[in-house]
Amino acid sequence: MRPYNFSAGPAVMPDDVLHQAAAEMLDWHGSGMGVMEMSHRGKEFGQIYAEAEADLRELLAVPANFKLLFMQGGGLAENAIVPLNLSRGQTADFVVTGSWSQKSAQEAAKYCTSHVAANTKANGYTTLANPASWQLSTQPAYVHICSNETINGVEYHELPDLKALGCDAPLVIDFSSHVASRPVDWTRVGLAFGGAQKNLGPAGLTLVAVREDLLDRALPICPSALNYRTVADNQSMYNTPATYSIYIAGLVFKWLKAQGGIAAMEARNMAKAKLLYETLDGSSLYINRVAQDCRSRMNVPFYLRDESLNEAFLAGARERHLLQLKGHKSVGGMRASIYNAMPLEGVQALVNYLREFESQHA
Ligand SMILES: *Cc1c(COP(=O)(O)O)cnc(C)c1O
């Protein structure tokens, strides 16, 4: 049996997907070629791409007026690509609720005026700011949030409704670490982006879903290969796309469909998160500091109240085949990332170990 891997990303993949990729490594569907060796312009890859796109559109219920783009550079590159495409060099607003949205606000300042509409740093990024309290600028080019803060473990369980706040700007969401774990309310979104390596596939591939009316706002300095209009008009093949990564993500999409789709994944993810948070909350050894109403279902940071036990905790975890539980270096402690591909049994094994370790150190 493989160990349970709680890495925040690159992260655990479904076993079935890895087995299928291994079986098809040297010869995809009798083509005589592995997917890595195929031209992106050939009919074989064309079929792989078309199926991946259609499956993802169906899974996430992406409306017809959104383009799905398979780009490269990860979530961090989008922190520049979004303002290059959407800001018009004017003001964009950022709601800073953790490390990733903080980075987004900082990077955008190279291309536009970056206005921080709210910042929860003062409480250690353990809450979300109520949208009614956001200090939005008068006519921002867009409003950016990180809908799941991977490091701080804070998640929006409802996307903000900008129109209800009297703001016409498109909402941009960085959904890197919870894409495909729950449905997306597209009526509230103008653009969503995410790196693939948390919940979709290999690192490097970046998914962008962008409303069509936002395609033609790029600054003249925007590189052609990063211009959403250019990428959209060329079916993500203006330059050579990350072909193998798209193929693997496509296998993940088929796996998600076989699991019952996003609604089924959401139900499982809720059950997994409930089990883990209840165990942490019921313990006197561990603590999670995030407010109950915005705890992430995907990334669960926690601390040992006695931090001198950290190394012993991690060593014991490794012995029990529970891997990569060390927290991000910027916040310390522990973190369990429990993405779609982490089965309930994996969370159960972690919970058993949490209880065992606590009983030994009571
Ligand atoms: C991982 C992550 C990123 C960064 O992704 P890279 O692929 O390293 O650029 C950005 N935003 C969020 C929310 C993430 O979880």
UniProtKB/TrEMBL annotation:
Annotated binding of L-glutamate, by residue: R41
Pfam families: Aminotran_5
Catalytic activity: 4-(phosphooxy)-L-threonine + 2-oxoglutarate = (R)-3-hydroxy-2-oxo-4-phosphooxybutanoate + L-glutamate; O-phospho-L-serine + 2-oxoglutarate = 3-phosphooxypyruvate + L-glutamate
Subcellular location: Cytoplasm
Pathway involvement of the protein, from the record: Amino-acid biosynthesis; L-serine biosynthesis; L-serine from 3-phospho-D-glycerate: step 2/3; Cofactor biosynthesis; pyridoxine 5'-phosphate biosynthesis; pyridoxine 5'-phosphate from D-erythrose 4-phosphate: step 3/5
Enzyme class, UniProt record, top EC level: transferase
EC number: 2.6.1.52
Cofactor: pyridoxal 5'-phosphate
Modified residues (N6-(pyridoxal phosphate)lysine): K198
Keywords: Amino-acid biosynthesis, Aminotransferase, Cytoplasm, Pyridoxal phosphate, Pyridoxine biosynthesis, Serine biosynthesis, Transferase
Residues the record lists as binding pyridoxal 5'-phosphate: W100, T150, D174, Q197, N239, T240
Keyword Oxidoreductase: no
Highest taxon, organism lineage: Bacteria
Oligomeric form and interacting partners: Homodimer.
HAMAP family, A to Z: SerC_aminotrans_5 (MF_00160)
Function recorded in the entry: Catalyzes the reversible conversion of 3-phosphohydroxypyruvate to phosphoserine and of 3-hydroxy-2-oxo-4-phosphonooxybutanoate to phosphohydroxythreonine.
Similarity annotation: Belongs to the class-V pyridoxal-phosphate-dependent aminotransferase family. SerC subfamily.
Name of this protein: Phosphoserine aminotransferase
Organism encoding this protein: Rhodoferax lithotrophicus
